[in-house]
Amino acid sequence: MKFKTIQLIYMVCLNQYIANFPTVIGAIDCTHIRVKKVNADGGQLYINRKGFSSINVQVVCDADLKIMDIVTRWRGSVHDSRIFRECRLKQRFEAGAFSGILLGDSGYPCTPYLFTPLLNPTTPQEERYNRSHIRTRNTVERCFGLWKQRFRCLLRGMFGDIETAKKTIVACAVLHNMAIDMREDVFSGERDSIEQYSSEPIVQRYIAPSIRGNIRRRQFIETHFQ
């Protein structure tokens, strides 16, 4: 289950005010939601790199920390880059449905529509690009933190059946967006602890950029970070 990704267009101008990174329409990342041990065939595929069973949930958020796209169907052992490679959102970017770009970490390949940080920046322009990228992409980390603070079941884990867990995760995303629209805050005293829950400290495997992605990113840096 996922939201209508057409909503991503509302982010075009918002993220430029975070760190002067233009044309961004979303920040993308995955987060692991713990589930009870699956004993059925293929249950071992739910075990992630930290050793517990989980669903690897892909989220795209906007500058207001609203969840604009969510994918909940993948087992915990699946890498973030595969989830994006096989999702409908990627297909829509490939088809030209959006004119802006997504920002992701080095666990994703750099493509003409998904920019990642430079592994070894060597010029002042590249360093400015990386700093701006990190600050802007951090919105998805903050989104995870706020989302999990609002719905502690996302922190503790889901202990019903897998299909119910997937539906519950999506429901929590919908309610999270409603809370933002209604300006509902988390409980007093909890906002200070949001960052520690922002995402799992898992080091992503570096994914080499595609040739087209590398060229497009280079052109972008030369145009916007001189």
SS elements, strand count: 5
- Provide the structure class: alpha/beta
| Contiguous helical run count | 7
What does the radius of gyration come to? 17 Å
| Strand residues, percent | 5-15%
In terms of per-residue confidence, which ranges show pLDDT below 50 for 5 or more consecutive residues?
Answer: 1-14, 192-203
Approximate shape: globular
Helix/strand order, N-terminal first: HEEEHHEEHHHH
End-to-end Cα distance: 41 Å
Key structural traits:
226 residues; disordered N terminus; globular; 15% strand; 5-stranded mixed β-sheet; 5 strands; alpha/beta
What's the short version?
Helices cover 36% and strands 15% of the residues. By secondary structure, it is an alpha/beta fold. The chain has a 5-stranded mixed beta sheet.
Q: Can you put this structure into words, describing what you see?
A:
The protein is of the alpha/beta class and 226 residues long. 36% of the residues lie in helices and 15% in strands. It has 7 helices and 5 strands; from the N terminus they run αβββααββαααα. A 5-stranded mixed β-sheet has the order 3-2-1-4-5. The N and C termini lie far apart (41 Å). The model is unreliable at 1-14 and 192-203 (pLDDT under 50). It comes from Parnassius mnemosyne. Pfam families: DDE_Tnp_4. Keywords: Hydrolase, Metal-binding, Nuclease, Nucleus.
Question: What is the fold's blueprint, element by element?
Answer:
Layout lengths: L15 H4 L4 E11 L19 E8 L5 E9 L4 H6 L2 H7 L6 E3 L10 E2 L8 H27 L2 H4 L5 H20 L29 H14 L2
Parallel strand pairs: 1-4, 4-5
Antiparallel strand pairs: 1-2, 2-3
